[in-house]
């Protein structure tokens, strides 16, 4: 019998992020507490740039953006933000990047977790920015997926190519 397998990846749907950003931008433009303070949220190259006249307002814009991302099904683990808004003239700025792909350290953590706590018949293989998990038993693969969903990792994981 052939082995069953699946891949563990960390990918972001850019269109969903763009939609969430547009919704957040509309809400920031319409909300009363953001009126006449120069508040905005928009793309700045590959990063998302949030601007307002105080650090509290910038963090409120970040909260609005995070809410929209959650509603669109995008994990906040894939959002890489600075901790503090930076003053720039009379305004405060906060940049947020998007993390895609599994870093080699995170891939090693995932494979170690599967080796230590997963079923013994499961094999893992790191290929680039994804991890392939193979086993003869599909039940073992299901238990690995449940194990990873329950684990507290710093990466948003998706499970694809389940065969």
Automatic annotation (TrEMBL):
GO terms for cellular component: cytosol. SUPFAM superfamilies: YajQ-like. It comes from the Bacteria. One of its GO terms (molecular function) is nucleotide binding. Keywords: Nucleotide-binding. NCBIfam families: PRK05412.1. Nucleotide-binding protein. Belongs to the YajQ family. HAMAP family: UPF0234. This is Nucleotide-binding protein CLV34_0811.
